Amino acid sequence: MRNIILGFVICLIIINASSAGESDYKTIGVIYRDSPEINSLIPKDAVIEVLAEGFDWSEGPVWIKDGGYLLFNDVPQNTTYKWSEQEGLTIFLRPAGYALGDNPPGIELGSNGLFVHPMTGKLVLCDHGNRCIAVLNRKNWSKSILVDSFEGKKFNSPNDIVISSSGHYYFTDPPYGLSSPDFPGKELDYSGVYHVEPNGSIMLVTKELDRPNGIGLSPDEKTLYVANSGNRKYWVTIDVADDGTTGKRRIFYDATEFDKYGKLGLCDGLTVDTSGNLWATGPGGVMIFTPDGKHIGSIDTGTSLSNCCFGGVEGNELYITSDMYLCRVKLNAKGIGY
Q: What values do phi and psi take at 73, rounded to 5?
């Protein structure tokens, strides 16, 4: 009997040892722990898993809760991919952006940032190729345009979007989808951040950022986060009132000179957890910040990162689009809405 019990204990030890910090997927990179606070968010045995690879430039991940799968874009390939644990990688939508005509605005013709409308469940796309915010009808695979211009002038190339629980849209519009800054079809002489109210009214939040990029909301929806990927690398916070209108802007964190883990990467996509911590792609990987702007750690895949989002059944998995890779890190933190 003693030998049976001993054998059972040894078996449990072997099972636990093989699961801790290991994965069925290829793993890459390193997780930097700059402050003890990071250990409550990222398990000590966490690894960076490569779920799929071979993309030109992966972007815009979003978790589809009612289907249990992830969507993300390969922007240059004009393709939206679907990934799930059960089915792996499949094509979800192609073309994901520009489809008609012989005068595309650039080489990044697909969609970029994606977001699921919290009230309707519809997929909303930052359609680079068509220079608009579009809504996908998943029943018949048709698109409708939410907005494509401001004060009669065509957008540059909408990049990233967030939608509040009451249906307010906030999105960024840098010129990354255009072939050059002097693209003849460029109608706006600035890169704006915009707010679309539930009734369709659109207003300019700010035009003071030279390359506004990733965007997100705090858990209480009183703070809007915006990344700037231009000459200076930094994030700003913008106050949001109860009616969705925006107010004062502040620098949240300036990473222009940040090179602790190398300078590879811009201030690009971002997401926020239920405790208000910011997970933002920047120099050296996904940089994790406390709500008051303290950098406590980074997830470095070794390549330039574009974006990240929370997903999984319980919302405690961070999905990262990292150049040619789609990656995942299993966390203790959870995304908003889980």
A: -115, 145
Query: What's the CA dihedral at 176, 182, 184, 187 to 10 degrees?
Result: 70
Rounded CA separation 266/289 (Å): 16
Strand partners for 93: 80
Q: What is the DSSP string of 81-125?
A: EEEETTTEEEEEESSSS--SSS--SSS--SEEEEEE-TTT--EEE
pTM, 2 dp: 0.92
Are the C-beta atoms of 167 and 198 separated by less than 8 Å?
A: yes
Mean pLDDT, residues 72-92: 97
Domain contains 18: no
Query: Domain holding 192: CATH number?
Result: 2.120.10.30
43 inside domain: yes
What would the two tokens of residue 156 be? 């540059």
Which among 312, 162, 182 is positioned nearest to 240, based on CA atoms?
A: 162
Helix ranges, the chain (H): 2-19
